[in-house]
Amino acid sequence: AQSVTQLGSHVSVSEGALVLLRCNYSSSVPPYLFWYVQYPNQGLQLLLKYTTGATLVKGINGFEAEFKKSETSFHLTKPSAHMSDAAEYFCAVTGDRGSTLGRLYFGRGTQLTVWP
Amino acid sequence: DGGITQSPKYLFRKEGQNVTLSCEQNLNHDAMYWYRQDPGQGLRLIYYSQIVNDFQKGDIAEGYSVSREKKESFPLTVTSAQKNPTAFYLCASRRGQGNQPQHFGDGTRLSIL
User: Fold this and answer.
1) According to the model, what pLDDT value does residue A19 have?
2) A97: distance to nearest CA of chain B, Å?
3) Residue B39's closest CA among A80, A4, A109?
4) pLDDT (0 to 100) of residue A101
5) What is chain A's pLDDT, residue by residue, as a tens digit (116 residues)?
6) Binary contact (A51, B99; C-beta < 8 A)
7) Which of B102, B103, B110 is the mutation pick for testing A, counting most A CBs within 10 A?
8) What is the number of CB-based contacts under 8 A between chain A and chain B?
9) Where are the beta strands (DSSP E) in chain B?
10) Which residue, B90, B67, B62, B86, is CA-closest to B5?
């Protein structure tokens, strides 16, 4: 089974500062990778995904992530934080073989706080 | 608009009672999923179904049951055997293969009376 590690359960930045949320996964076989955002008492909304091709992927709301196979990482960044970015962020990866390809494995989430 | 509808938004369970959470999608997706979310633990998979009339246990299936009689519906029953059911429950669906993202409903918050 996959495991997903999100370093830092809480990250705080000032408005306008760089946002960096870290995600590492366990498989040596590159899976499909996703970042989701969750606002309070809501479901998860897809920010971006990596499946194949270019390793730098752009998502909604100015976020992007880079898939680094050698580091088994998929860190999420945004050059300039906005107050509306305050939310919880989840990294997720698919299984790496057989029937597990259909399911997602989630990290524990990172709560992003943005200070004015 | 297509989407996933979970109901009710809030649900209370008494001791010894089974409760059923509804999940309906009109996205024509084949696969559907149930997750449990607890603070600081991320999302944990309870059950999933990749086609009608078939489903698999996830990582925390004990105390839960599901059915998939129709493509658009995947109800979750929280049985009295689940001793700690208080959590936020999320339903998701996905079309096609694993490279497609899962789409989520807005969740049901279950509490114990």
Assistant:
1) 98
2) 10
3) A109
4) 60
5) 788 999 999 999 999 999 999 999 997 677 789 999 999 989 999 999 998 888 899 999 999 999 998 899 999 999 999 999 999 999 999 876 665 667 899 999 999 999 99
6) yes
7) B102
8) 66
9) 4-7, 10-13, 19-25, 31-37, 43-51, 54-57, 64-66, 76-78, 87-94, 103-104, 108-112
10) B90
Taking residue A42's Cβ as centre, other Cβ atoms within 10 Å add up to 15
Nearest Cα neighbor of A26 from A88, A91, A76 is: A91
CB B94 within 8 A of CB B70: no
Among chain A residues, CA nearest to B10:
A41
The greatest distance separating any two alpha carbons of chain A, rounded to the nearest whole angstrom, comes to 47
Interval B1-39: pLDDT, tens: 679 999 999 999 888 899 999 999 999 999 999 999 998
Cβ separation B98–A32 shorter than 8 A: yes
What tokens were used for B16? 């010894």
CA distances from A73 to A32, A33, A101, B15 (A): 12, 10, 19, 44
Give buried/exposed letters for B69-95 (b at 16+ CB in 10 A, else e). Answer: eebbebbbebeeebeebebbbbbbbbe
Contact A82, A75 (CB under 8 A): no
Cα gap B105→B35, rounded to integer Å:
11
Edge-to-edge strand order for the sheet containing B64-66?
B4-7, B19-25, B76-78, B64-66
